[in-house]
Amino acid sequence: PHIGPTVFNIFMDCTVDSGATAHLSVCPVAGVVVERATVHALDNTFLLDFPSGGGSDGPGRLRHLEKGELKLDVTGTELTVGAEPFELEGFYGENASFFDDVRAGRHPAGDLPSARQSVEIAQCIRERRAEYCRAAG
């Protein structure tokens, strides 16, 4: 509260349509900018260090372990077309994919309906609601 009325940590426990679960933490004044993901599946774990906005994890890294054995270890610069922040953080690839789909007459993966849930969750965070359940449809 001493930092300001709009500064607060966010901790979410989520269940997605597939049944998978996610635990998200957003801590805006934690002392470091990091965006990481860990995916646990049967005998497999994926670790992603995302190179977000000048954080300490640049240029990013993706690791895949299967039954404890390292199968893949690549940096962000090995997975992108360049080392600029807009390339490493995915904006270039996202935009290129969108325009490629439009040029080819395909329906882009990213559209207004696919963005709706993110907007709804952001609204719940702003309202500091304790629970969010996606509307049917």
The gist of it:
The protein has 137 residues and is of the alpha+beta class.
Percent range for β-strand residues: 25-35%
Q: For the terminal residues, how far apart are their CA atoms?
A: 38 Å
Overall mean confidence score, pLDDT: 87
Could you give the count of β-strands? Answer: 6
Q: Key features?
A:
137 residues; alpha+beta; 4-stranded antiparallel beta sheet; two-stranded antiparallel sheet; 4 helices; 6 strands; 28% helix
How do the strands and helices of this protein lay out in sequence?
Blueprint: E1 10-15, E2 21-26, E3 35-41, E4 44-50, E5 61-66, E6 69-75, H1 76-79, H2 85-88, H3 91-104, H4 112-127
Antiparallel strand pairs: 1-2, 3-4, 4-5, 5-6
Task: Give a verbal description of the structure.
The protein is an alpha+beta fold and 137 residues long. Helices cover 28% and strands 28% of the residues. The chain is built from 4 helices and 6 strands; from the N terminus they run ββββββαααα. It is globular and about 40 Å long. The termini are far apart.
